[in-house]
């Protein structure tokens, strides 16, 4: 049984914005999948139907054998914006991942179970921040904050980890570090992971499998070897779409050269 399956999933916003158009995808347990595609392709919507925040207009989404319906604690989320509580330590932020088990009131009294505290420290260790556990989140770098966000999602003990452009606001070095930690966390825990990314180089480095989405449809589904430059161009620009700048550059003539420049 696949860890994640989407069967003929369509999502239409309002009257006519087809964000997902009859998508069927099956993802086995433990796979690290990267979703690629141009802006507006439907990547976020795909992640949102998986975490239950958006209901598909048609089709079925399952995590394991359970249909997704409503927000789902079996799904851990890492966002572009980390949404940490800046005044709290990395440890306390990671612990909030256990809120679903502890309940809000008990959390106010810091009445977390020892296993949740252990899970928070283990998750911080997984993302290389155990020695910074006591540091206030607000004083951490963007990359460290994102790693705390990953730790918080791990503490949830999810069946599926979703990351919506998790490194979009980081510099290349921090982005690569964060992706590295996310990948090793996923492998260590055999956690099925789906991340949307805009950086093709990072996607190639860390993904096991790549799903290319354009205009709400899956236009590519393959491994690293299949993700050639031509395949990337097709995902972003389409067969019949505008030519990418690199392709245009080969034969590009600037016709304005021939015009007389007014004195
Ligand atoms: N809540 C919404 N209401 C109406 N239309 C929406 C909503 N969310 C997304 N859309 C539309 O659905 C389509 C897919 O959007 P989505 O955000 O899933 O794309 P994306 O690939 O994640 O884009 P980006 O890379 O820019 O984040 C777009 O046309 C978008 O305008």
From TrEMBL:
<feature type="domain" description="ABC transporter">
    <location>
        <begin position="4"/>
        <end position="240"/>
    </location>
</feature>
<dbReference type="InterPro" id="IPR017871">
    <property type="entry name" value="ABC_transporter-like_CS"/>
</dbReference>
<dbReference type="GO" id="GO:0016020">
    <property type="term" value="C:membrane"/>
</dbReference>
<dbReference type="Pfam" id="PF00005">
    <property type="entry name" value="ABC_tran"/>
</dbReference>
<keyword id="KW-0472">Membrane</keyword>
<dbReference type="InterPro" id="IPR027417">
    <property type="entry name" value="P-loop_NTPase"/>
</dbReference>
<dbReference type="InterPro" id="IPR050086">
    <property type="entry name" value="MetN_ABC_transporter-like"/>
</dbReference>
<dbReference type="GO" id="GO:0015416">
    <property type="term" value="F:ABC-type phosphonate transporter activity"/>
</dbReference>
<keyword id="KW-0547">Nucleotide-binding</keyword>
<dbReference type="InterPro" id="IPR003593">
    <property type="entry name" value="AAA+_ATPase"/>
</dbReference>
<keyword id="KW-0067">ATP-binding</keyword>
<feature type="region of interest" description="Disordered">
    <location>
        <begin position="237"/>
        <end position="263"/>
    </location>
</feature>
<dbReference type="InterPro" id="IPR012693">
    <property type="entry name" value="ABC_transpr_PhnC"/>
</dbReference>
<dbReference type="InterPro" id="IPR003439">
    <property type="entry name" value="ABC_transporter-like_ATP-bd"/>
</dbReference>
<keyword id="KW-1003">Cell membrane</keyword>
<keyword id="KW-1278">Translocase</keyword>
<dbReference type="GO" id="GO:0005524">
    <property type="term" value="F:ATP binding"/>
</dbReference>
<protein>
    <submittedName>
        <fullName>ATP-binding cassette domain-containing protein</fullName>
    </submittedName>
</protein>
<dbReference type="GO" id="GO:0016887">
    <property type="term" value="F:ATP hydrolysis activity"/>
</dbReference>
<keyword id="KW-0813">Transport</keyword>
<feature type="compositionally biased region" description="Acidic residues">
    <location>
        <begin position="240"/>
        <end position="263"/>
    </location>
</feature>
């Amino acid at each position: 049984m696949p860890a994640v399956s989407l069967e003929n999933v369509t999502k239409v916003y309002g009257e006519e914005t087809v964000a997902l158009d009859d998508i069927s995808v099956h993802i086995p347990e433990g796979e690290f999948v990267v979703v690629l595609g141009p802006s507006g392709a439907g990547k976020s919507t795909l992640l949102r139907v998986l975490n239950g925040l958006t209901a598909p207009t048609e089709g079925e989404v399952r995590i394991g054998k359970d249909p997704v319906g409503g927000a789902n604690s079996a799904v851990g989320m890492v966002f572009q914006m980390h949404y940490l509580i800046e005044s709290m330590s990395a440890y306390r932020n990671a612990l909030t991942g256990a809120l679903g088990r502890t309940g809000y009131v008990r959390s106010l009294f810091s009445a977390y179970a020892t296993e949740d505290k252990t899970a928070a420290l283990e998750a911080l260790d997984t993302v290389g921040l155990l020695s910074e556990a006591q540091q206030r989140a607000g004083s951490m770098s963007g990359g460290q904050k994102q790693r705390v966000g990953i730790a918080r999602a791990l503490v949830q003990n999810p069946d599926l980890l979703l990351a919506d452009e998790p490194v979009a606001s980081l510099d290349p070095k921090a982005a690569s570090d964060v992706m590295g930690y996310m990948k090793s966390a996923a492998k260590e825990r055999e956690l099925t992971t789906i991340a949307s990314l805009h950086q093709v180089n990072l996607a190639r480095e860390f993904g096991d499998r790549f799903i290319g989405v354009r205009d709400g449809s899956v236009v590519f589904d393959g491994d690293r070897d299949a993700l050639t430059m031509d395949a990337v161009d097709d995902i972003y620009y389409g067969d019949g779409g505008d030519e990418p700048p690199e392709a245009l550059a080969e034969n590009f003539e600037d016709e304005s050269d021939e015009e007389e420049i007014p004195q």
